[in-house]
Amino acid sequence: MDDNFRQSAVLFGSDRSLVGIVTEPLCEKPAGVACLLLNMGAHHRVGPHRVNVKLAHHLASLGIGSLRFDLAGLGDSKAATGAEHFAAQAVRDLQAAMDLLEQTLGIRQFLVVGLCSGATNALAAAVADARVVGITLFDGYSFPGRRSRWERQLQRALAASSNPAILGKTLRWLKRGGKALDTRDKAAGIFDEVQSPEVVAGLFCRSMEQVVERGVAVYLLYSGTLHVRDRNRDQLGPFRNEPFAKHIHYEFMADIDHTLTTMASQQRFLKSVSDWALDVVTARLAPPAIDPVAPTSAVATNTATAASGVAATATTSRCERASSPAALAH
């Protein structure tokens, strides 16, 4: 056991089929906010190069507890017995993780750190559950425009002859006789749902509007892996000027890669995410500058309801325009 924290393995969920590790900071006043760390794609809960383990320990040194766990059907967790799709089940699993820490540690506010496909689950959980007060989405949703896509393809083509990953993929493709790799049976029900770019973009926009309006802290972090470049929030594409974009923390790190291969990449990632988490926790503890005044009359209530309806309609219209094929292709 480290002097700064203690760890314990847990089984939780409705049928105790989810497996995780709780990391509790050993300090006088631990934060009243905990962090949930989940799978990156089909990776085990430890994350690529054990980054989730390292992040849990780092957060504990700052007084922030965490639970890293495997979603149903991944890692050590058993497959779900219900008929829900993986995406919906992932939200249920995250809510079960929150229930566990609320029951055992009394924590009612949570941060969720999602890497790659985990970013989708983190955002969905924030939409579904008000206990989520902050989310980090690392290399998750990305909507680069035409210029960014062309530039990336050109850079990759120029580097192809010296890139061992590309060479390896080409050799495996040739061995398969030029056929695409079929992974449907290996991850049935998990990564087999394909949505159109317009559907994904529209869902992202509406979800971001909802969580930002609720005051959820959002940290969009992107790596420069595989020659990705960024000049003006390029990864947001048509959404860079949306109202929600003014209220998020956006950062592009050209010198780190998608799986945080080098120690330098890991250290930079750990510091950035930990600093963000500490800022969110500190802000949650600070008193509001102005106390919100709730409507006290039926007229005021009806006016607020009508206004929210108009706002929701406007949000939907903006999201539909920004996620149209023309906007995404620009």
Task: Please give a structural write-up.
The protein has helices spanning 51-61, 86-105, 117-128, 146-159, 164-175, 197-213, 263-285, 298-322, 325-329, and strands at 5-12, 18-25, 33-37, 66-69, 109-115, 132-138, 217-223, 249-253. It has 330 residues and is an alpha/beta fold. It has one domain (5-286, 301-329): Alpha/Beta hydrolase fold, catalytic domain (Rossmann fold). An 8-stranded mixed sheet has the order 1-2-4-3-5-6-7-8. It is globular, with a radius of gyration of 21 Å. Residues 290-308 have low confidence and may be disordered.
Structural class: alpha/beta
Largest sheet: 8 strands, mixed
User: In the CATH hierarchy, what is the architecture at level 2?
Assistant: 3-Layer(aba) Sandwich
Report strand order across the widest sheet.
1-2-4-3-5-6-7-8
> Class, according to the CATH hierarchy?
Alpha Beta
Q: Per CATH, what is the topology?
A: Rossmann fold
Coarse shape: globular
Beta-strand percent range: 15-25%
Assembly state (oligomeric): single chain
Poorly predicted runs:
290-308
Total helix count?
9
> Got a strand count?
8
Tally of separate domains? 1
SSE string: EEEHEHEHEHHHEEHHH
Distance between the termini: 53 Å
Mean pLDDT figure: 83
Binned, the helix content reads: 40-55%
What is the radius of gyration?
A: 21 Å
